[in-house]
């Protein structure tokens, strides 16, 4: 198997991000797109929030190079090309809306409306959750059933909106969301190669390179944040990469299980305490750990290690029942930790 295109695309993306990030830092200061200290924010100085520029820009450059080399759509069907168009156009829309949010600090309502619209774009471009495997059942293709659309349409909407909000809410510590996203991209790329989809694997490799080039500037003490433009783009891109070449739902859930359970817990916890699910507080696991005195680097590295471990399990465990056990074990561990921390500091805001 010729791996040269992989290294080229990864290298182009990483180099592009490394060049674009300092430019984005300067533009963020010049345009006033910055996060100021205070409130729930822990940083001590003004930090630009234009991280979406180098991440999406580097990803786009790498994809353009892959297209120019003639390796991007090798073996693609017509439907695959439509899905690729959906991934790229949806990612661009997510980035642009994120820039608008970075400028105007929009309320949750417009954000959810936009995310819902993006999920419809995903459906229109065949990026839908139509197939997956289940323990004791095997391969399930929802489109083949008479009630298929009634199942895969809401599941796709939940998947896209859920991933965008998970990444956005995860982006609370320096390097956290970008690092977890990079781990997922690496796992997806390896998995796609393993199942014989080398051209599709170029997509997570391009995003992996973009994140690798960006992360040195985003690690604590960060010189730039992802911002809404980066978080929305990354969330949509990861949701699309999990769907673009057949459902990788279990793989994504294994890597992203910790932040996904954390998001679900925050929604339930806020509702049961009579607060809006969208009301920001310090209840997220990474913020609770920070308030307990752990350093940002220790928390981020622990998240990376946890997600990386379950990514490794996703690649090495082939039995569906064992994967289900691993997922349930992951969820149980996170829920127990969150419950204990919640009892320790029940009034976190």
Written account of the structure:
This protein has 349 residues and is mainly alpha-helical. The protein has a domain at 4-244. The protein contains twelve helices and four strands; from the N terminus they run αββαααββαααααααα. The strands form two sheets. It has a two-stranded antiparallel ribbon. Strands 3-4 form a two-stranded antiparallel ribbon. Helix 1 (4-31) packs antiparallel against helix 2 (52-69), helix 2 (52-69) crosses helix 8 and helix 9 (249-272) runs parallel beside helix 12 (320-344). The chain starts with a helix and ends in a 5-residue tail after the last helix. The mean pLDDT is 88.
Descriptors for this entry?
two-stranded antiparallel sheet, 349 residues, 4 strands, mainly alpha, single chain, 3% strand, two-stranded antiparallel ribbon, globular
Q: Strands, helices and their partners?
A:
Elements (H helix, E strand, L loop, with lengths): L3 H28 L2 E2 L11 E2 L3 H18 L8 H27 L3 H17 L6 E4 L3 E4 L6 H23 L5 H19 L3 H21 L8 H15 L7 H24 L12 H7 L4 H21 L3 H25 L5
Antiparallel strand pairs: 1-2, 3-4
Helix pairs in contact: 1-2, 1-7, 2-3, 2-7, 2-8, 3-4, 3-8, 4-5, 5-8, 6-7, 6-8, 6-9, 6-11, 9-11, 9-12
